[in-house]
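hiii so um. not sure if this is the right channel but i have a protein structure encoded as tokens and i wanna go backwards to a sequence. like what aa goes where. can anyone help
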């Protein structure tokens, strides 16, 4: 029901309206502060640059959410004051003033204000009074250095939010003779937060296989070959990513193994970021031993013929990742150094195991085993081309979870390869 003001004189109505209007901005300010606090980004490590050369800084940025800002309250709140009485003047031509009092704020009385950050608590009389809340203790920020191959923590250091230098925090980056791939993981109050950074060593020249032997294996130089050791030039630093393929059968997610095939992951990631795999068919679903069950599915050719590519080739990388169910690997021709954009996903089994050491495997399926099985079950023609090819609708890279929080490699839920 609308409020009635017939019994109040005009001056009292104006005062009441002013008091109500003064309260509205305070509510709006509180809502804005709450919305801003809820939209803060999570903590993370980020490299300032990708290539960090030997004996130079390895600059990073440590982003940590600021403590929840204290609510800003303005204008100052005015507490109700004892009322005084004043006669109500009579309009001209009417009788003398009545004895009915009206409440007026005393002009010289002190006002109650609340400092920024001081929440208001109701008292027994129902009026808000300022109270102070102690600030939260500062967060403990740490960075761990971890061997990528084993997950072993080999060093840890405290750090501060803002820009920092991993080489200063961890002198072993340049001083240690062990130049394997490393992870840098942020910890806030003892908990791992955000995607780790992967630091892959840069060696020149990298191992190179000029040809295949009679069994089809690439002829990399043996470890004890009498040749000069490759030169260590520094680290390539980037956030760990997951590959997400949105297909017409559902979503596939892969963990990319920069620790086992860094150059292949680097090449492949740039193709993904550049849109190479948007709207691309799975053009081949085949068996390696003329069996009724397929051993792999292949895609990545923009022409859908099996003959297309990105217009340039990369050298074969000596990856030790085995072609188990869900492992992603680069396709190539008989030349070991002829990979371009095409890749295949292994379905596991004894036949797929014959590919180990011959192709550069660089990732593992972590989500979407049923989707992979559905793709592999597509009917094919005599040329192993699907009659209705499944497609990659889009491909993208997303930040990996903190180390230890991600899912393990996916397994075929049925324990067997899909049949067509």
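sure thing!! here u go:
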């Amino acid at each position: 029901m609308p409020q009635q003001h017939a019994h109040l004189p005009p001056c009292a109505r104006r005062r009441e309206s002013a008091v109500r209007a003064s309260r509205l901005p305070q509510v709006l300010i509180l809502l804005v502060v709450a919305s801003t606090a809820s939209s803060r980004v999570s903590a993370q490590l980020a490299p300032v640059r990708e290539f960090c050369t030997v004996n130079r800084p390895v600059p990073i940025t440590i982003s940590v959410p600021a403590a929840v800002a204290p609510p800003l309250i303005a204008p100052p709140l005015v507490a109700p004051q004892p009322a005084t009485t004043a006669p109500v003047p009579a309009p001209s031509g009417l009788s003398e003033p009545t004895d009915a009092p009206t409440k007026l704020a005393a002009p010289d009385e002190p006002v109650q204000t609340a400092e920024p950050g001081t929440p208001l608590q109701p008292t027994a009389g129902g009026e808000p009074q300022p109270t102070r809340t102690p600030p939260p203790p500062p967060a403990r920020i740490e960075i761990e250095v971890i061997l990528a191959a084993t997950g072993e923590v080999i060093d840890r250091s405290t750090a501060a939010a803002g820009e920092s230098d991993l080489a200063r925090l961890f002198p072993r980056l340049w001083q240690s003779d062990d130049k394997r791939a490393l992870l840098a993981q942020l910890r806030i109050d003892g908990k791992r937060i955000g995607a780790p950074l992967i630091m892959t060593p840069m060696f020149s020249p990298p191992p190179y296989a000029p040809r295949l032997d009679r069994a089809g294996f690439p002829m990399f130089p043996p470890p004890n070959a009498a040749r000069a050791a490759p030169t260590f030039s520094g680290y390539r630093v980037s956030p760990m990513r997951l590959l997400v393929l949105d297909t017409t059968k559902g979503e596939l997610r892969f963990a990319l193994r920069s620790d086992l095939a860094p150059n292949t992951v680097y090449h492949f990631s740039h193709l993904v970021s550049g849109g190479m795999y948007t709207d691309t068919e799975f053009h081949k679903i085949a068996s390696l031993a003329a069996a009724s069950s397929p051993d792999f599915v292949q895609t990545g050719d923009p022409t859908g013929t099996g003959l297309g590519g990105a217009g340039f080739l990369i050298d074969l990388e000596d990856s030790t990742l085995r072609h188990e169910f869900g492992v992603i690997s680069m396709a190539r021709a008989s030349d070991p150094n002829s990979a371009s954009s095409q890749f295949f996903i292994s379905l596991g089994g004894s036949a797929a195991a014959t590919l180990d050491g011959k192709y550069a495997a660089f990732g593992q399926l972590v989500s979407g085993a049923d989707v992979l099985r559905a793709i592999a079950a597509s009917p094919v023609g005599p040329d192993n081309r699907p009659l209705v090819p499944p497609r990659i609708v889009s491909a993208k890279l997303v930040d990996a979870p903190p180390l230890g929080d991600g899912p393990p490699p996916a397994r075929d839920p049925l324990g067997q390869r899909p049949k067509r």
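oh and The radius of gyration is 34 Å.
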